[in-house]
């Protein structure tokens, strides 16, 4: 469903109105509009484009999926593309939801490609900062970007928690090689996807706060500066987590190699101990007469040799920590 809202003086004046009412509301110089289009038809998108004089390239960008996060300037409006993200903590997979936005002097028009974007959460976030709308469209744009960037930050924090759990599995006494490998792969893949949508946001917000753009009034500048700081922190955190996952993968391989060395030492030690009775019984099993042949003394001697040498090897290997 489409979402429409009209603000005047920091107060929500009207919402849920039809697109045909845009012309009437735009005629009031004291109002600003937010129009959210969910899977708009060609007719809906074209009617809004005609009303707001939107550029054909921007309309094409809004209709195309998998756009890179960006900010483009046109003669009568600006165009923005961004992604909301959500992490599935059970599987470690990252879900993205694309949103495009047309920014005019009196209206913010967002376009959602699917229902993955949490529009209800965005509405609640907007209501918490409704008083900022006295500063114009920049306040609505800030609300949208702040919601998106907060989602990036929460996702990075959730990934950090997942990596800490992975570290616990890595150094557990019981081997979890398969779980660690599978989880590491999923988290690394999610971090790569997250970086693709977080890193370009630094350029987007940096462009918005430039003075020559003249999109952000002085009263909103501190809010956008704080937003830029959050984008930088999310970007740096994402890069550090990606390096940490790579380190975990390498550490897991090292631990597997060390564990294999320990097992090899133990198997070799037991093989050496078992070789003692094998050698002695093999010697006494030859078909030639020897001292103690077919006598009780020979049996006792061979038994004592087997026990004595085996115990001596066991003690020697134990002292060397091979067993």
From TrEMBL:
Protein family according to the UniProt entry: Belongs to the CorA metal ion transporter (MIT) (TC 1.A.35) family.
Highest taxon of the lineage: Bacteria
Species of the source: Paeniglutamicibacter antarcticus
Leader peptide range in chain numbering: none
InterPro entries associated with the record: CorA_cytoplasmic_dom, CorA_TM1_TM2, MgTranspt_CorA/ZnTranspt_ZntB
Membrane topology: Multi-pass membrane protein
Location in the cell: Cell membrane
Alphabetical UniProt keywords: Cell membrane, Membrane, Transmembrane, Transmembrane helix, Transport
Protein name: Magnesium transporter CorA family protein
Membrane-spanning intervals of the chain: 267-285, 297-317
Annotated Pfam families: CorA
